[in-house]
Write a structure and sequence with these properties.
Number of helices: 4
Number of domains: 1
Shape: globular
Strand content: 35-45%
CATH topology: Thrombin, subunit H
CATH class: Mainly Beta
Largest sheet: 8 strands, antiparallel
Distance between the termini: 33 Å
């Protein structure tokens, strides 16, 4: 894709419209450090006659999760009814995360977050990175050495505590060792964020693809690709997954049987 000016606005609009409520900023609590972004991911386990069985996780880079006390910044759009508190504190934060192989990625089952909201009288109203958006092996294989426009959806730390969401434009390329690297700035607070491309389909059409997770680095940021993340998650036992009902998985059935953790429009 060499026509960034033509398609950039459309791709950004697609990101904001489809997954704008998928991200959640966090940091070490009570200290101005370890700012990062996590995002909600629905892993498709199987499709049955009753619907899609999913496991739901928060996903981010491993390094920022290695703190004992952390706080999430709650955006009004993610909660109903809207919370008066802007922060959600979490004790034993590091213990809540499972590190996915050697990918530099950590995942947290969403069960506890849903249970917390239920106890407090509210529920999450998020978007999620779904199986249809997360990159497949074919999507990753389609990335070559020539840089392609890419878009990071993260929460910038401007020092005022607001953690505003931003779409950061950069490029992706293959490194000599076959990895995927981000070319461009990753603002403070955006490590762990999802990175997207608009994969061309011809005739000015594109498919929104979440390539993976932005990892911390001193110079060039690597991207943990979603095909490897999904392959690693398949090795998780059901009790290591999520499901707001505590079961580890949940079936997405018809509208009349919609589970309460699904986003309502």
């Amino acid at each position: 894709m060499s026509d960034l000016p033509d398609h950039s606005s459309a791709i950004i609009d697609a990101i904001v419209d489809h997954v704008g409520r998928s991200t959640l900023p966090f940091q070490r609590a009570l200290r101005d450090e370890q700012h990062a972004t996590a995002f909600w991911f629905n892993e498709l386990v199987e499709t049955t006659s009753e619907g899609e069985v999913i496991r739901q996780f928060l996903v981010t880079a491993s390094e920022p999760t290695r703190v004992e006390l952390a706080e999430f910044t709650l955006r009004p759009a993610l909660c109903a009814p809207v919370m008066s508190a802007e922060k959600l504190m979490m004790l034993d934060f590091a213990d809540e995360w499972t590190h996915v192989g050697d990918l530099g990625v950590a995942v947290m089952p969403s069960t506890g977050l849903h249970a917390h909201g239920a106890r407090k009288g509210w529920h999450w109203t998020t978007d999620e990175i779904t199986d249809g958006i997360a990159a497949t092996e074919q999507d990753i294989a389609g990335l070559g050495e020539s840089p392609v426009p890419a878009y990071l959806l993260g929460h910038v730390d401007d020092g005022d505590g607001s953690r505003e969401q931003a779409v950061v434009i950069g490029r992706l390329t293959r490194s000599d060792d076959g990895g995927i690297r981000w070319i461009g700035d990753v603002p403070q607070g955006c490590v762990g964020a999802p990175v997207f491309i608009g994969a061309p389909l011809g005739e000015d059409r594109f498919k929104l693809v979440c390539v993976g997770v932005a990892l911390p680095a001193d110079d060039h940021h690597s991207i943990a690709p979603f095909d490897r993340i999904r392959a690693a998650l398949k090795a998780f036992a059901p009790h290591n997954a999520s499901g707001p009902d505590g079961a580890g998985t949940g079936a997405r059935e018809g509208e009349q049987k919609r589970r309460w953790w699904q986003r309502r429009s």
